[in-house]
Amino acid sequence: MANNFDSNTTRTLARSFLDSFESQRVLSKNVNTQFLSNAFNPSTGDTVDIKRPTDYKSTRTAGGDISGGTAQSIITGKASGTVQDYFTVELDWAEADEAIKMDQLDELIAPAATRIVTDLEVDYADFMRKNTALLAGTYGTAVTTWDDVAQAGAVMSSSGIPADNPWCYAVNPYTQTSLASNQRSLGAGGSAGSLISDAHRKAIMSEDFAGMKVMTATTLSSTTSHSGADRVGALASNPDVTYVTAKDTMTQTLALSGFQANLQIRAGEVIQITGRNRLNLSTRQPIINAAGANVVFTATVTTAVTLSGTGTGNVVITGPAIFEATGAYNTVDSAPVATDVVTLLGAASTIYQPNLFWHKQAFSIGSVPIKKLYSTDTLATTKDGLQIRVSKGASIRENKQIVRFDFRPAYGSLNPFFAGQGWG
Question: Which of 191, 151, 157 has its CA nearest to residue 171?
Fold first, then answer.
């Protein structure tokens, strides 16, 4: 029987691809990542569920007699990860084979890995922007000083976000230019590392500023607001403010009226409800800013919607306004009601690209197991659980040999209250 080195070949390709893939990751290295083994099958469809933590409210009594009260219900919510499309790069096998023989494999494979990482991080940054609940700074105002960056740390701290995992802040590279004048006083980013962490290391501006790892990212998402100038309206009815309704999606539907006719509200834009204020999610106490004022409730629009010709319609927001008598899950100090003033922040016909800040457990990327083809396959997995499939086989219709690299993720928003958009 003749020797067959195909499996060795795909393993060689996989090692080179994985090194390059890891070296280019920035945003995806700073969220919850995992290999979703046995999580997806025909019965689960395209989602997998992750349980949310429960919370309760204590009572205070002089003698410890709680017989007059009622035991609190155990309410468990879930966060769902949604399977995304394949990210694939296909190469002609003759070129890959030649690169191996000429010892130029890294030069050939690196661009393929870079393409998948870039497309992944652009797509994932857009997902992150649309699933943030918090707001730091004035919407639409560019970050120009480290004071502006520090606002995000203050927002996270005052919101009760735990410090059990890293806090991160990603800025546009031009924001880095604005901050450069006093960068030296803060100290440059991470320590020297291997190729595996090279892009991430270079992106870090400060390992610990205002409690956050500050880094640059070229993949931040943007949106352009609609031309409609009337961006102030009201709630048309009382929204559902119960935790039971919101617990599995952490979203809320608001019925709007009084806006510009046919106004297009883009996913990722931010709305504000006047008179309803944020609570610290740990203490359930009002959040007071540096000026001594309450922080007004804001939320991010998750799905684009076009209002009617009379300026009415429903909008879905992430980071819901919860207000219940028990108070265990309240996010606002009073319930939003019909006629409350609602403002779509920003101006008409303007492009907006916010910086992002988040706790590592705000978002997740799960790597979905990929079935083997009728070919020579190698599965390579990063240290944090992301799996790449490398396949070598024949494309019988085109009468040629190919090698392909595949990655299929699932995106999840674990807690939108652990993330926000950062402005100046």
Answer: 151
User: Of all residues in the chain, what percent carry a pLDDT higher than 90?
Assistant: 54
DSSP letter for 279, please.
B
User: Could you tell me what percentage of the chain is helix, strand and coil, using 3-state DSSP and rounding each to the nearest 5?
Assistant: 25, 30, 45
DSSP state of 196: G
Could you tell me the sign of the dihedral formed by the alpha carbons of 119, 121, 122, 128, in that order?
positive
Rounded to an integer, what distance in angstroms lies between the CA atom of residue 372 and that of residue 301?
A: 38
295-328 pLDDT, tens per residue? 999 999 999 999 999 999 999 999 999 999 988 8
Residues 401, 395: contact at Cβ < 8 Å? yes
What is the rounded CA–CA span in Å between residue 350 and residue 140? 9
Those residues whose C-beta lies under 8 Å from the C-beta of residue 49, and which sit 6 or more positions away, are 78, 79, 80, 81
Type of residue at 413:
S
* Rama region for 38: left / alpha / beta (φ>0; ψ in -120 to 50; rest): left
75 and 244 in contact (C-beta within 8 Å)?
A: yes
Terminal Cα distance for the chain, rounded: 69
Nearest one of 302, 294, 32 to 168, comparing CA atoms: 32
pLDDT at 42 over 50: no
CA angle (254, 292, 278) in 5-degree steps:
25
Where are any strands of DSSP class E within 195-354? Answer: 204-209, 212-216, 223-224, 232-235, 251-257, 264-265, 270-277, 296-301, 305-306, 313-318, 341-344, 351-352
H or E segment and range at residue 173: helix 173-179
Look at strands 134-136 and 419-422 and give their pairing. Answer: parallel
With 0.90 as the threshold, say if the pTM is over it. no
Encode pLDDT of 8-33 as tens digits.
Answer: 678 888 888 888 888 889 999 999 88
Which residues share a beta bridge with 351?
A: 224
